[in-house]
Amino acid sequence: MKRLLLVFSLILVPFVFSIAATVTVWFSWEGQKEFQSIVNEFNRVHPDVQVNLVYIPNMIQKLRIMLASNGNFPDIALIRNNDLGLLTDANVIKPVSGIKTTAAFYKSFLVNGSEYAYPYYADIQVVYLNKALFKGIPFPKNDWSFSDFEKTAEALKNNGHIGLLLQKTSPYFFDSFNAAFNDGIIPEKNGIPLVNATGTFKAAKLYNYLFNERKIAVSYKKMALVNAFKTQRAGMFMMGSFLIPDFLNLNLDFTILPYPSLDNGNPIPPVLDSKGFVIFNSNPAVKEFLDYVTSAKIEEKFCKSTYKLPANEEAMKSLGEENTFFKTMSLSARNALILPRSKVFKEAYGKAISTALTLYLSGEMPLEEAFARAQKYIIQHK
Amino acid sequence: MSLFLPVLLVSAVIFLFLTAKAKPSYTFALAVLVFIVSFFPIIWGTTISFFDFFPPRLHFVGLKNLSSAFTDPGLFLSIKITAMWALLVLILKLVISYTLALSILSLKKFSKILYMVVLTPWAIPTYISVIAWTALISGYGGESLLSSLFRMNFDLSSNIPAAFLWTSFVSVWLGVPVMTMVILSSMQTISPALQDLSKMEGLDPYEKATNLYLPHTLPIAFPYIFLSFLGSFKEFTVFFLMTGGGPSVISGFGEKSIVGATTSVGVFIYNKFYSTRNYGVVAAYSVIVGVVMLILLAIGWNYRFHRRKNSLIISTIVAHAFFDFWGVGSGMFGIIPILFYGTSLILFSKRSRSFKKFFAIGASIDLIHMLFEMSKYGINAVSLSTVISVIVALTLSFEGKIHVSFLKIPNSFWKGAKILWLSFWSITVLLPLWSVLFMAFSKENIIPIDSFFPTSLTLSNFSNIFYNYGFFNSLKNTLIISAIAIGTVLLTIFPATWAAVDSKKVTKLGNVIVFTSFFSGMHTLIPLAITFKFLGLMNTLFGVGIAVAAHSAAISYFLLYPFLSSIPKNLNEAAKLDGANGFVRMTRIYLPIAIPSLTTVGVFVLMEAWNSFIFPLIFLSSQHLYPVSMMLYNLIGEYGTSYSQWNLFGAGAILNIVIVGTFFFISRKYITSGVISKGGI
């Protein structure tokens, strides 16, 4: 009987070792094809690990559903840094260690003193400029001020174009203006964002000045906004750097600039929209895969074709000088705004800011009342 | 989650109690399906509303969550907005569908082609048509091809009337095909003798419509019409994709909730889901919305009893009083119209025909008061009780009345109007199709559209969809889901419906199906996911298929029950005398006769399965299992924030429409013939 068991075990051993560990990865946002080819390459050179890639159209929606239904999480998921609070609060992700990245990326995924993700890349907000529409208009430089920005928009408008396109009720863009008047951060007290203060009022008034008083800025929904720029209706628009590859494919005559500084010298910090891999199930195969994709060479490969800022310092150094676009993106990242990772910021702040801006800019509600209501809503959802 | 098993057990007992005496050999399969997918998630959702629930942690809080939801002014406003919107959609849908049905019925040529054109929106998945319409309407900050036609701005993010009216229109556009089909089919039940009589009397089209078609078709089609109103009450996709619930309104900016001009209850619950991780709170809001649905359903249910108007009036009075007391009705003023409705009830019990007049007076007072209040306080003054009373009054006033046209309009006018109307509606049907075609053949990823043809044409989007995005695999998954859903519905619904026809005791199961169908929605999806995880059905095509099947059960039952009931009983009795058992009678007598009706049911379920988007989104977590709807959603990404690939989406959408359209075309005969019987839907 013992002999039989031994023979049986010997037969089984090779089979056991031939079974590859499976790692399920949820991926979202741009670069689906590029990441798939990286995964294919990894699977080819690492026969001991099999990575199963799933593209998730709306990551936070899917993660929320999994949280609510106590569902099965993947081993790894790519998330936006300001979605982190939701997952740490639910205690479903593991802290990581030994991460080598820039200070901004590290801070992006830091919650209560622990790092919770392998930072992968970031999109950064920039100003896109339609070069073909600048005939007779002085072209601004990287270190432009708000006055230059305003004059440029005015000149474009006088030439019959839209001076500036900006989604006026989107907190994603307002955050930068809000931070510009609040020492470069979104002010918080005991983890609760503060919106009922002078700095935020000044930012909202600046919006009112651009959209309603000077009328040099116009707000469209995102799809119309991008198309208006493509079809040369608008001279400038503020958006994340993720549009660069598409515009290059279309051979658009365009360039990008960093956000301008306020006239008092304070920068308007663009949002560093960082994405990183969080770990739900920690095991050697997961680590092996993450070490592979966040290595300098592989990260550079992904970010080069998708125009993302790599989190890997070596990749960043290499790409930072690649072309004008990467140079401007790196320059923008120096002043970048890192959004709070708290649950209340994610769940209440955005909705409250968007509603307050809509009501204030449409003239339906006075500024102070709109933001006082926003503050109450945020506190109620803390 | 230690609560899960006890709740499962208790709900099984309640379910058995509710459906007891149903012939188990015929109804068991359907009962299991309804229990798992609809009934248990409702009970589970209701249970967790008594807890603070941060999965997997549960903490009993009694009525705290329910009381907080019950007193949230944001919820009041959302219910009012939804009621007003649903009423508008219902009226528009009825007017458009009736006029289209009448026009098609009176055509001598091209009636079949035009009927197919009218039915076309049904073959286009909702998420495709809504996105196409949004691009056409809002354009660049409200400046679009349509806005230039109307000479006004249609910015759906800031223009409240535009947002409210365009979302209504798109919902009507989506609902007109089935409504027209139901009305047209019900018109075919009018006896030829009556039709000949109307010709001999020389009735003009208006008189014919009001004296012949409306009185005969309304009682037959009304249960479907009311269910369609309840369906509008649960609408989510149109708002979510077109306006996201906006534009913002002052009265909607509260501490607990933020409600915009188009925040329907579906969007409201969805927003709650996103603003808290305490799912006990979300469940509490869902329970309150479910109770509102239940009250409305009770009124709709009473329309089935044509001779028992007292049930209808009583349920309207009770609903009126409840909504007035709660804060979504007319408040203290509600006492005045209720007095009229009470008088109407007394008159009805004394068999006086003037009961309708009193009801109409009450509803008029209700309406005038609401409009007056709305002129002062805007949308906040909408009264759900008024909306309900007006619907009931309108339908009562149509019964047993002779409408005479005082203006003698020449026939040529009616002919011209008919041609114009059908042409206009055909263009309206084809507009979003053109928009999707534009995207599909455009080289550039461009939207909104501002020219008739794309500047650069290409076919590469189609090849891209096939080679790089696994269209074939997605198609295979969609076909599997559809086959599972159709198979499950036919195998469960047919025996159970036959049993209900054969024995009145079984109809209880039908009632439970209807109840669960209208109580469930966005809010019961999470409990359903928990149940599916427990049963190992998560991330399986089978899970998605049976979820679609269970959600199609109500409409399938509504389609099949009247048809089987209309089959002469003597056939059944004769077979019984010959010694045929139930199974033989079901398979040898009823099944062959019911094949056209079953095909119609199959087509309905196919449409549901093909268009299903929420179930795959929630239940599937493997790329190789994604159906076409998910593949297309991947191309759009996080709508409004991601960078969407519209040209690829357009190509995928066109392929999808062609496939569904082909199914639709092949089965058109069954769709039009098997929809209705004399018993009504």
Q: Roughly what fraction of the amino acids of chain A lie in strands?
A: 15-25%
Q: What would you call the structural class of chain B?
A: mainly alpha
Q: How many DSSP E strands of chain B?
A: 4
Q: How would you classify the quaternary structure? A: heterodimer
Low-pLDDT stretches of chain B: 676-681
Task: State the strand order across the main sheet of chain B.
Answer: 1-2
The structural class of chain A is alpha/beta
Mean of pLDDT of chain A: 90
Spell the H/E element sequence of chain A. HEHEHEHHEEEHEHEEHEHEHEEHHEHHHH
Topology:
The complex is a heterodimer of chains A (382) and B (681).
Chain A: H1 2-18, E1 21-27, H2 32-45, E2 49-55, H3 59-68, E3 76-80, H4 84-89, H5 103-108, E4 110-111, E5 114-115, E6 118-130, H6 146-158, E7 162-165, H7 171-180, E8 188-189, E9 192-193, H8 198-213, E10 217-218, H9 222-230, E11 234-240, H10 244-249, E12 254-257, E13 272-279, H11 284-293, H12 296-306, E14 309-310, H13 313-320, H14 324-334, H15 343-361, H16 367-380
Parallel strand pairs in A: 1-2, 1-3, 7-10, 7-11
Antiparallel strand pairs in A: 3-13, 4-5, 6-11, 6-12, 6-13, 6-14, 8-9
Helix pairs in contact in A: 7-8, 12-13, 15-16
Chain B: H1 4-19, H2 24-48, E1 51-54, E2 57-60, H3 64-70, H4 73-105, H5 111-123, H6 126-138, H7 145-150, H8 160-187, H9 192-200, H10 205-233, H11 237-242, E3 248-253, E4 258-260, H12 265-275, H13 279-302, H14 309-326, H15 335-349, H16 355-377, H17 384-398, H18 411-441, H19 460-468, H20 471-502, H21 507-519, H22 525-535, H23 541-565, H24 569-577, H25 582-611, H26 614-619, H27 628-636, H28 646-666, H29 668-673
Antiparallel strand pairs in B: 1-2, 3-4
Helix pairs in contact in B: 1-2, 2-13, 2-20, 2-21, 2-22, 2-23, 3-13, 4-8, 4-10, 5-8, 5-18, 6-18, 8-10, 10-13, 12-13, 13-14, 14-15, 14-17, 15-16, 16-17, 18-28, 19-28, 20-21, 20-23, 20-25, 20-27, 21-23, 23-25, 27-28
